[in-house]
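pinging the channel bc i need a second pair of eyes. not urgent but kinda urgent?? the chain im working w is below, pasted from the shared doc
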Amino acid sequence: MSEDRKRLLKELIKQLHAGVSPEEVKERFKEALKGISPLEISRIEQELIEEGMPREEIQRLCEVHLAVFREQLERQKPHVAPGNPVSILMEEHKVLQGLLEKMLEIVNRVQQTEEPHSVAEEINHLRHIAEDFLDAEKHYLREENVLFPLLEKHGVREPPAIMWKEHDEIRGWKKKLHKLIESYESMSFQDFKRELGETATSLNSLLSSHIFKENNILFPTALRLVTEQEWAEALEDFDEIGYCCFTLEHLITKPKVKVEESKAEAPTPSGLLQFETGSLSKEETEALLNTLPVEITFVDAEDTVRYFNEPKERIFVRTKSVIGRKVQRCHPQKSVHIVNKILDSFKSGRRDVAEFWIQQGGRLVHIRYFAVRNRDGKYLGTLEVVQDLTEIKKIEGEKRLLDWED
């Protein structure tokens, strides 16, 4: 991309940031973006952010790009092979778009009604739609933990970050819709209608725009960059995270039966990992770490995710796609500055531990970060430990070894 075109884009984005409407700069944007592919748009966004352009302003570029080239982009839809992870995401998008349409139809009918008792059935339909929106969470988890890391490995970092930011905004509106419907009977009908209209309009606007951007910019970019082998591995990660209640059955990859590798011969002493307090084989070490009643993740001194264990019961989603990813990319943008503060405090030696606890699905989850140092105090990385404390908090009295019964 030429420097003149880049300067023009920056100038136009600044005008938008200052309040100029897209229509006023539409023709100039057409000239600046003429002939640019979705992949080039993604790289332009990334380069501008790396040069200091705030993500909010880049989102404006994306919105105007869609407004100006919507028809052109729709004509350029790429072919997606059946079974490709992108085909699953796009089909789920169709379902979500259908839910938005049904939601708006029902909301419109409710808005035109003056008698609260006559819309009981409509409210019940809305409740089911709101629950389906909440169940779409695994759609976003698959994108954030599989697709986004794949794009980052191919050098496309900022567009996924923008999409993740929008995911969080969508989550907020979905929760607000669900909470509003559950509060229906405790509100005045007029207040309910007003808030319902505002919430439904905002959710429809944000989610519709988001789906269009992913279908026409992010997904085509991924299809041009990601290899067949990477897609095959991504599909396994999709299976591990799971699918939505509305994901079409024929799209869902059935669990794969792993072929057992031939048993290796007993390890020789030279094949053992020798520690100060004993030795373990690789198989024993991996099994031991996976048996721990906690989830652990290790981030090295360069902030790169190097390892996580796989306990039977999982609290947070982890896939192999995050290995080699910067830890900052594994958190929503709104919390990255806190992650960096924790890492800086560990690296400087000011702190060795940071801990938090949250309520999730009725469970009390304890999240701790530990600075990992060698015997000389050199910082080697950070260990994240996640544990469900719900049952532990209920423990009272004593239960000794001799009290154990089979």
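so Strands lie at 273-275, 278-280, 295-300, 305-308, 353-360, 363-373, 379-388. and The first helix runs from residue 3 to 17. — does that match what u expected or am i reading it wrong
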